[in-house]
Design brief:
It contains 15 helices and four strands. It is α/β, with parallel strands linked by helices.
Length: 381
């Protein structure tokens, strides 16, 4: 047992010495996740507000101006221009200076005075679907509020008291993220994507590099066992991955004020199992990749794209095709994103995330076993 530990320690020391010979690579390995977190956190946002809006009043009456002021007073719509013709809306959309166009038709005030239903056109630029959907919802809500205000004014003029009529007043409360901050939603998931990239990619090239440098044959004729070589190769990146997890959590808490409401140790165990799973995937790629370039390409494809698209980070998994929902079970990021959000935002602990923890543990063991079998066959060939 002591001899095995010494051999593993020798490999670990060799890996750290290799990193020490190129300090720039070590700095990049440590700082790249931090840079990626900052870039993703500031660049990726699902918050929609201050939507540039153009208002075209073709009626030019007191009523039409009163209606247009509802958009000027809104914190969601940012009225950047007032047009006088329908062509102004087309020009604003083509130039990209406005995403919403509100057109008040001629005869607006006359229609209201006659007690009829006046129509207002709200055009939304659909080239950005998220902004378009939210803008449409806000416009509908704004018009409903304005309609209620007009109904009350009409009742007051008629001397009617509508306070005795039954009314529905919804009280909406958002749980877990009441301020609707994108950072609270994104950063726990971004942590998963970044750690997946680092662990999978760096591990994927570790054994391939030995083949390229011609040292694999020397390792095979040494007293070093196959499992000892694998553990020796993985341990340095395990330590580095844990350090990066701690850095990312600290940055999220301090710089972006992301809440950590749940059990820290549940998150720590989940992160450890996720790192273990990522290292196993990287080791499998390293065992089957014929060259360093191939290993890098496969690692990026399997680490970044599934972690970003099939983990629930960017899109809710129940909103993607069923086939892709099943495919997502083949990637550990799916389980870790759930763990991170449950612990960070929902205040969860071990009772809430144990299925995901079991899935990560099984995933990591399967990856390690398959990697050991494939690498053993190649070593004997």
């Amino acid at each position: 047992m002591r001899a095995s530990a010494r051999r593993i320690g020798a490999i670990v020391g060799k890996e750290f010495r290799h990193l020490g010979r190129d300090p720039r690579a070590l700095v990049m390995v440590i700082l790249t996740p931090v840079i990626q977190l900052l870039l993703f956190s500031y660049a990726v946002s699902f918050d929609v507000d201050h939507v540039p809006t153009i208002v075209i009043d073709l009626d030019q009456t007191v009523d039409s101006r009163t209606y247009a002021q509802q958009y000027d007073a809104s914190t969601f719509f940012d009225v950047v221009a007032h047009g006088s013709t329908l062509g102004d809306a087309d020009a604003a959309f083509d130039a990209g200076t406005a995403k919403v166009a509100v057109i008040i038709p001629a005869g607006f005030a006359r229609t209201l005075a006659a007690g009829e239903k006046a129509q207002v056109a709200v055009l939304v630029d659909g080239s950005e679907p998220t902004s378009a959907k939210v803008s449409q919802a806000y416009s509908v809500a704004l018009n409903q509020l304005y309609n209620q205000a007009m109904t009350k004014d009409w009742a007051d003029k008629q001397g009617l008291d509508i306070s005795g009529f039954g009314q529905l007043e919804p009280r909406i409360r958002t749980w877990y993220n009441p301020e609707h901050r994108s950072s609270d939603f994104l950063i726990p998931g971004l942590m998963v994507v970044i750690i997946a990239i680092v662990t999978v990619q760096q591990t994927a090239v570790t054994l391939v590099r030995e083949r390229d440098l011609g040292t694999q044959e020397q390792l095979q004729v040494s007293p070093l066992r196959q499992l000892e070589l694998m553990f020796g190769k993985l341990l340095p990146w395990t330590f580095i991955a844990f350090a990066e997890v701690a850095m990312i959590i600290g940055i999220g808490r301090v710089l972006f004020a992301v809440p950590l409401r749940g059990d820290f140790w549940a998150l720590a165990v989940g992160a450890a199992l996720f790192v273990f799973s990522g290292l196993g995937m990287g080791l499998l790629i390293s065992a089957i990749a014929p060259s360093l370039d191939t290993a890098n390409i496969i690692a990026m494809l399997l680490a970044f794209l599934p972690s970003f698209l099939l983990s629930g980070l960017a899109f809710a998994l129940d909103q993607i095709p069923v086939v892709l929902q099943w495919v997502s079970y083949a990637f550990p990021a799916r389980y870790m994103v759930t763990i991170a959000r449950v612990v960070f935002l929902k205040g969860g602990g071990f009772p809430d995330i144990w299925p995901e923890l079991v899935a990560l543990a099984v995933y990591g063991m399967v990856m390690m076993a398959i990697s050991a079998v494939i690498y053993g066959r190649k070593a004997r060939a």
